[in-house]
Design goal:
It contains six helices and ten strands; from the N terminus they run ββαββαββααββααββ. It is globular and about 55 Å long. With 236 residues, it is of the alpha+beta class. The protein has a single domain, classed as Pseudouridine synthase, CATH 3.30.2350.10. About 5% of the residues have low confidence.
């Protein structure tokens, strides 16, 4: 875990791929645990420390994650996420090449739900309930831009406008360009290339930049990280 930014109210860190943002009861250390340990050590606090979880990255995804160090920090960040004023940038290596050099994807949340909820494992009652939830008029929206490509893969820059469950993974797969290493949503095309991917705990998706306002003033903080070095093995 690397600390990118820290003030009295907010801390930004880089989550490694394969690490949960928040614990799931398995006993494995999560990013949340790591940040709390860091704060305890840095500020010599013997007891529990406050840490507000305001958003998550999927376990196989690496990149920038924000936490609130105080209730004010967590509240201000949560408000920005709700209002979609936080700007997030992702990069992904996908299988194949898009037909266009840039584009936008806008879908009803029901289409996202049918992939993301794992419908093959649902009972009839659970399926009916999930379909009812999927009828809401919320949408999942993102824009993307082709950075470069070769004969197998493409590097995309992605700007999500909404933050639905597994949105980027599902929408790129729907577009016909599944994320490299993502067997969950990549179906046969991604699985064909799965053996060539270097790490079964990660996929080629990274949260590479984020912009947000401070908790106590209107100053905007812009944070950015480099693409993972191992990605050079697949596209240069």
């Amino acid at each position: 875990m690397k600390v990118l930014y820290e003030d009295n109210h907010i801390i930004a860190v880089v989550k490694p791929a394969g690490v949960l943002t928040q614990g799931d009861g398995s006993g494995k250390k999560s990013l949340f645990d790591m940040v709390k340990d860091y704060l305890k050590e840095k500020y010599k606090k013997p007891g529990n420390v406050f840490l507000g979880l305001v958003h998550r990255l999927d376990k196989p995804v690496q990149g920038i994650v924000l936490f609130g160090k105080t209730s004010k920090g967590a509240s201000r960040l949560s408000e920005q996420f709700r209002n979609h004023t936080i700007q997030k940038t992702y990069h992904a290596i996908v299988v194949g090449k898009p037909k266009e050099s840039r584009g936008e994807i806008k879908e009803k949340v029901s289409k996202i739900s049918f992939f993301a909820e794992g419908f093959t494992n649902k009972t009839d009652e659970e399926l009916l309930e999930a379909v009812k939830k999927a009828t809401k008029t919320r949408t999942a929206e993102l824009s993307w831009e082709l950075v470069k490509s070769n004969d197998k893969y493409s590097l995309l820059k992605i700007l999500p406008k909404t933050g639905r469950f597994h949105q980027i993974r599902v929408q790129l797969a729907n577009m016909g360009c599944p994320i490299l290493g993502d067997a969950k949503y990549g179906h046969s095309r991604a699985s064909e290339h799965r053996s060539g991917w270097h790490d079964s705990n990660s996929i080629a998706l990274a949260a590479t930049a984020i912009s947000f306002k401070l908790a106590t003033e209107d100053e905007i903080i812009n944070l950015e990280i480099s693409l993972p070095r191992e990605w050079n093995n697949y596209i240069k």
